[in-house]
Amino acid sequence: MAGAIRKAVFPAAGLGTRFLPATKAQPKEMLVLVDKPVIQYGVEEAVQSGVDNIIIVTGRGKNAIEDHFDVAVELESYLEQRGKTAQLEEIRKISRLIHVSYVRQGEPLGLGHAVLVTKQMVGQEPFAVILGDDVIDATPPALKQMIDVFERLDGPVLAVERVSADDVSSYGVVAIQEGADLGKGVHRITDMVEKPRREEAPSNLAIIGRYILTPDIFPALEATASDRTGEIQLTNGLKRLLRERPIYACEIEGVRHDTGNKLGFLKALVYFALQRPDLADPFRRYLETLNLKVGAP
Ligand code: G1P
C-alpha cells in the first residue's frame, strides 16, 4: 500500500539569470503573475492536492520567499484596523494554512543535489517535487492526478507532456513501454535521458516539473556522478533507480506554462489575467484595441 504524500519539495536556489535585471535583488520565484508570485501557484496546487508540508530549497538572496510565507503581523493589523477583510483573509491563507520549512542548498550543484539536501527533512516517506517554473492550470490539480496514479501503482511517478522535436533538448525525456494498459496517459518508463539532442531523444515525452518520489531516490542520487556541467541531475538519479524498481510517467490533463523563460512568462501572465473575473473583460477589451499585427512579418 502506497503511503500518503504529505510533503512537497520546491527547489528554489537557482540564480534566475534569464530574468536579469529583475532578479538581481529579487528571487525569480517571486516574479508576479497578476497578483501572486509564481511560487505561490505551485504551493496552492500542493495544498489543493492534500499536501500541507512544504520544503523550500533556498540559497543566497532568497529571503523574500521566507517573508512571503511568514506571518506579516504589521500588515495584518493594518488591514484589520481598516476593515479590509478580503485582503486580510488572502494574506492569512498564505501563512496559516501551510507549514513551510527551508533548507539551504549552499552550492548550485543541480536539481538532483537540491533534492538530496532535503533527505533529512523528507525522511522515510514518499514525497513530491514541484518545479515552480512550471505553472499548471488543471482540474484536478496536476499533483493530485499524479498522487492518484502513485496510490494505484505504488511507484515513483513523473509528469510528462508531449513536446515538439525541436524542444526535446530542453527537458529530461523518457522512453516508455508501448502497449501496457496502465490507464489513460499512464506509462511504464523504460529509459530516460536528460536534455538529449533531437536525434538522440527516445521519444517526445518530456518530463515537466512534477515528481512523486520514494525515499530510495536518495541513495540513488548519492551514487549518481555529476555531469559535464558539474551538476547532479535528478533524471540521472531516476535512471539509476529504474534498474531497481518500476517508475511511471503520467501525462497531465491541463494547461502548462513554462514561466522560466520570458515568452512563457508573458503567455502565462495573459492566460491567468484572462481567467480572473475582476480583470478578464476590461483586459480583453484592452488587448482588442492593440494592433497585434504591428511588427509581424
Ligand atoms: C529540469 C530537469 C529536466 C526537466 C525540466 C522540467 O530542467 O532537469 O529533466 O525536464 O526541469 O522543467 P531545467 O528546466 O531546470 O533545466
Bound molecules: 1-O-phosphono-alpha-D-glucopyranose
Number of helices: 11
Main sheet, how many strands, which sense, barrel?
Answer: 5 strands, mixed, barrel
CATH architectural name: Alpha-Beta Complex
Please identify the top-level CATH class.
Alpha Beta
Strand order of the largest sheet: 8-11-9-10-12
Note poorly predicted spans.
none
Tally the beta strands: 13
Fold-level CATH name: Spore Coat Polysaccharide Biosynthesis Protein SpsA, Chain A
Count up the domains. 1
Radius of gyration: 20 Å
The CATH superfamily is: Spore Coat Polysaccharide Biosynthesis Protein SpsA, Chain A
Mean pLDDT rating: 92
Kindly, what is the distance between the CA atoms of the first and last residues, rounded to a whole number of angstroms? Answer: 58 Å
Helix/strand class: alpha/beta
Share of β-strand residues: 15-25%
The ordered H/E elements are: EEEHEHHHEHHEEHEEEEHHEEHH
What is the percent of helical residues? 25-40%
Shape: globular
